[in-house]
Amino acid sequence: xxxxxxxxxxxxxxxxxxxxxxxxxxxxxxxxxxxxxxxxxxxxxxxxxxxxxxxxxxxxxxxxxxxxxxxxxxxxxxxxxxxxxxxxxxxxxxxxxxxxxxxxxxxxxxxxxxxxxxxxxxxxxxx
Length: 127
Hints:
The chain has 127 residues and is mostly helical. The chain has helices at 73-88, 107-119; strands at residues 59-60, 68-69.
């Protein structure tokens, strides 16, 4: 435990929220591995300003699902938006009766895809 001391410390991974100086009252753990384990109840983390995790890779296991990487929020929203734009830009969709018009030519498709695109930002957490 540290009380009003200044610590010379270099984090293992860069993080935009890393303070320039580690001082003031805090608990400081610097080790090769840290394991937090709640055997019978939840693990809770609270902060007055925010929780920041700096690592080159994160995997999660939620319930019985296998380990999966977390998606990057803004990148996912951007890629889904590009996919919707590409679908809306399709021309001459092949059908049994010959090519049809564009996806935009069908009002139901245009509205459904536009509605989805307009909701993509709801995938992102808000501050």
